[in-house]
Amino acid sequence: SSGMAYLTKVLERKPNNKELLSGIAQALHQAKKYDEALTYYQKLIELDATDANALYMAGITFIKKGKKEKGQAMCDKAIQMDPSLAKNRTKKGEQLGL
């Protein structure tokens, strides 16, 4: 989409902008482009190892790709880092059948 093209163009100028990376990752995730989304979630985690939300969403993405154990471990670690993510799990977990 043109919105995605714009975001990626801005990202070329600001490659470490966490808000941009997160927005692109979420857009790709919603479009079910899980491999591409993971690339951005993993870049977010590299930039900030304390980014519990990026870790959580990377875990959710692995689960959607069928790698349940790896994804579950990432989600569990993210919830340890930020217990408020646990309430997301019930909402997202219902959608994922967890």
How would you characterize the overall build of this protein?
With 98 residues, the chain is mostly helical. Helix content is 79%, strand content 0%. α2 (18-30) packs antiparallel against α3. The radius of gyration is 13 Å and the shape is globular. The protein starts with a helix and ends with a helix. The mean pLDDT is 89.
Would you summarize the structure shown here?
The chain has 98 residues and is an all-alpha fold. It is built from six helices and no strands. α1 runs antiparallel to α2, α2 (18-30) runs antiparallel to α3 (34-47) and α4 packs antiparallel against α5.
Secondary-structure topology with pairs:
Blueprint: H1 2-13, H2 18-30, H3 34-47, H4 52-64, H5 68-81, H6 86-96
Helix pairs in contact: 1-2, 2-3, 3-4, 4-5
Keywords:
about 100 residues, globular, about 80% helix
Categorize the overall geometry. Answer: globular
What is the CA–CA distance across the termini? 31 Å
- Quaternary structure annotation: single chain
- Please bin the fraction of helical residues: over 70%
Number of helices: 6
β-strand amount: under 5%
For the residues shown, what is the average pLDDT?
Answer: 89
Could you say which structural class the secondary elements and strand pairing correspond to?
mainly alpha
Rg over alpha carbons: 13 Å
Instruction: Tell me the series of helices and strands, N- to C-terminal.
Output: HHHHHH
